[in-house]
Amino acid sequence: MPITVNIPTVLAGYADGQRAVAASGRTLGEVVADLAVRYPQLAPRLRDTQGNPYPFVVFYLNDEDSRFRGGFQAPVQDGDEVTVVPAIAGG
Amino acid sequence: MTSTLASALTPAPRSPPRARPLRCRSCGADRAAAPVAICEQCLGPLDPVYDPARALPDRATIAARAPSLWRYREWLPFEGDIVHSLDTGFTPLFEAPRLARRLGVARAWVKNDTVSHPSLSFKDRVVAAALNAAAAFGLETVGCASTGNLANAVAAHAARAGLEAWIFVPHELETGKVVGTSVYRPHLVRVRGTYDDVNRLCAQVADRFGWGIVNVNLRSYYGEGSKTQAFEIAEQLGWRLPSAVVAPMAGGSLVTKLHKGFGEFREAGLVTGEPPRLFGAQAEGCAPIVRLVERGDDRIVPEIPKTIALSIAIGNPADGMFAARAIRATGGWAQAVTDAELVAGIRVLAEDTGVFAETAGGVTVAAALALARAGRLGPEDEVVLSITGHGLKTVEAVSGVLPEGPTIAPKLREVAALVEESGAR
């Protein structure tokens, strides 16, 4: 069972219009790298040229902010759900 | 006869305003006006774009307008007539000499948004802007993720505008904040988790249902309402700038927009002189922006909040980076205070100025006192404290530390005994 990545509408167009895509990897960073290979237009919107996350983009791992789990180093396993949320809300 | 009278008294329906187009604050990409707050290119925040050639009013023209935040309409993100919340803003700014003496500064003022209309916090400003954006986009359902004050404001403004409202709050919230929301009959949803969990959920809700979530997809327009506090401070000081402003920080938007607002009035030639040094205040148990300023880098490290200052308990502040930049650019600083200090701050403000503030106000006062002790505010300073919400919303914060007062029989001799005991006579 792969890892499911939920993509916000604003980015779905870069993933063939899909709001949820399957991906694989042992860490969150590997999952993002897997997506980046398959959807090259999505890649620069999820991470910078060094492969690091942007301050504006938050990755939630099973509804928990991945930064509390090691960020892109956070381990993931089959069946996990990753949700990409642009971090503009608040206040 | 009756129908003729009724039609004479009913104002003609106004057509909604047009929202200004947007531009990404990070990469500069342009996009048409829309209920979207993030850039499709880089996911950075979008800001409204103003026509630099638009006609701007002078001081006298502004001063002759109605006392609401719309007297600064040329700096708010709409064209045409606004249709909602016409009477919000223009709260009192008053001088507080006892507080000035306590701080050791030349002069001090309180910008008193505890009496903001209609929901007793500065969130009325941003919601007034957001609901007009909702009108511009034809949205009939609005909502928010909130730590309380925003919930009160969205519920109140939506009720009077006749809009559906979906309000999402953390399940642990002060009674006053919950009652002050549910009285307006919105769909109030209490989410098990912190504000940051609620916020993430609302980003998904806005994406899924297409509602106008004021601090998510209407945020570009919503945030501009905060600038009006800066405009009012400048005008109410007699068209000049203070040397310092101390304001609470939650998501970091207020400090960011105060900086923008003071800058816009300087650019327009309405005020001169240096922009005020901006000082941001947070509770020690949730101070990611303070720590960002102290570290001097550009990346927020999120925190799990642990403070009684629930109204500013945001562990993942969206505008934290921009608030830190505004603070650094003006030569200000950021200060965290303990929960005990914030409670003392609420009492100091009440006893020195007659204003009862909620926890964020206590944080602001306590931070100002700490900044003064550290020498960051000095005897030359003219300081404005931004007090953002009313104390009756968070009575839990102080009720346990205040004396209850004696209970007596309705007999004069018992009063006389109390007077004697107090040493008053």
What does this structure look like?
The complex is a heterodimer of chains A (91) and B (425). In chain A, strands 2-1-5-3-4 form a five-stranded mixed β-sheet, covered by helices on one side. Chain A has a single domain, classed as Roll (Ubiquitin-like (UB roll)). Chain A is built from three helices and five strands, in the order βαβααβββ. With 91 residues, chain A is α+β, with helices and mostly antiparallel strands. Chain A is globular and about 30 Å long. The longest helix of chain A has 11 residues, at 28-38. By secondary structure, chain B is α/β, with parallel strands linked by helices. Helix content of chain B is 38%, strand content 15%. In chain B, the strands form four sheets. Chain B has a six-stranded mixed β-sheet with strand order 6-7-15-12-13-14, sandwiched between helices. In chain B, α4 crosses α5, α11 crosses α12 (320-329) and α13 (339-353) crosses α14 (359-373). Chain B is globular, with a radius of gyration of 22 Å. The interface between A and B is medium-sized, with 25 and 43 residues.
Number of domains of chain A: 1
Give the C-level CATH assignment of the domain at 93-118 and 224-398 in chain B. Answer: Alpha Beta
Counting helices, strands and paired strands, the structural category of chain A is alpha+beta
Largest sheet: number of strands, sense, barrel closure of chain A: 5 strands, mixed
CATH third-level topology of chain A: Ubiquitin-like (UB roll)
Computed Rg of chain A: 12 Å
The portion of residues assigned to helices of chain B is 25-40%
| SS elements, strand count of chain A | 5
Assembly classification: heterodimer
The low-confidence runs of chain A, each spanning 5 or more residues with pLDDT under 50, are none
Residue share in helix of chain A: 10-25%
Reported CATH architecture of the domain at 93-118 and 224-398 in chain B: 3-Layer(aba) Sandwich
Radius of gyration of chain B, rounded? 22 Å
Show the largest interface.
A-B, 25 and 43 residues
Distance between the termini of chain A: 37 Å
CATH topology of the domain at 93-118 and 224-398 in chain B: Rossmann fold
* H/E topology pattern of chain A: EHEHHEEE
